Amino acid sequence: MSIKTNELPQAAAMADNDSFVATTSQGTKRISLSLLKQIMGQIFAPAPVASTTVLYVNADSGSDSSDGKSAERAKKTLAAALATLPKDLGGKSVTINLSGTFDELVNIQDFCHGDLTLQGEEGAHGRFTNAGTIYSNDVLLTINNVDFSGTASSHVLIIRDNKSVVIENSVMDATAGGNGPMMRRNGYVFFNNCSISNASRDALLVNSGVVSVLNLSGSSNNTGVKCGNSYYRETGIVIANGLTISASVQFQSEQGGVIFNDGKLYGGE
Questions:
Q1: Same domain assignment for residues 140 and 7
Q2: CA–CA–CA angle 214, 122, 83 (5° rounding)
Q3: How many domains does the chain divide into?
């Protein structure tokens, strides 16, 4: 058959042999039907969907000898669940569902090429009673419904050299004599609907990097937000809305530190 080029999609449906003749301004040309189908498939193929891995960890009833692939076969420690993952996530999204109270150091380090989420149990939260380190991850790391408490002279979380970290719906308690989270040289950190309390020094310490805050509260802290660091001579920026941490000194800015809260500027020396 002979068709016009603007009829090619219809021609693919009508053709009943291995090829057809297309008429153009340059003349006629025989086109392979299988080639046309291959081209049309590439044009109209759906966008690839990133595969998802889901793991389960239950500090109270899990076992590290389990595979962690269902709530009934949950692992006991976060460390064991992380050990099952390759450091290069290969574009995958990984969610680790957490239940119970964990007496282990959080150590999330060197993951790349993907998304990693720690998801606490709705209404109960996963809870870590030891300090944690989130270090050198080139992924979007999200922590939701997970609570942390620190140990003496430590931070509830140390967040350093990461690409992007989002912490939501988290309670951080430094009752043991420690401090709130410390951040340095991250691409971007975002706190949403969190609280930080009982820090012996700083509830939120931003040595350098950009930190965004939405609805961050807390009580009984020595210093609410400290930004910048004269020793490292690095620049820290905090951009906040609804930052209401109760502290003896609410905002402290060192060299290179800038704090915006509800449109007001603090620091910037």
A1: no
A2: 90
A3: 2
Collapsing DSSP to helix, strand or coil, 52 comes out as strand
The 10s digit of each residue's pLDDT in 35-62 is: 656 665 665 555 555 588 999 999 999 9
Cβ partners under 8 Å of residue 263, min gap 6? none
Residue 82 or 174, more confident: 82
Q: State which residues form the domain around 254.
A: 52-267
Which residue matches tokens 């809305």?
A: 241
Answer yes or no: do 72 and 88 share one domain: yes
H/E element holding 59? none
Between 248 and 93, the more confident residue is 93
Residue with tokens 């402290």: 252
SS3 12: helix
Give the model confidence (pLDDT) of 166-207 as tens digits.
Answer: 999 999 998 876 889 999 999 999 999 999 999 888 899 998
Tokens of 2: 């002979």
Task: State the average pLDDT for the chain.
Answer: 83
Cα separations in angstroms, 32 against 15, 16, 17, 43, 183: 10, 12, 9, 17, 60
**Residues 67-76: contacts with CB under 8 Å, at least 24 apart:** 71/97, 71/99, 74/99
| CATH number for the domain harbouring residue 92 | 2.160.20.10
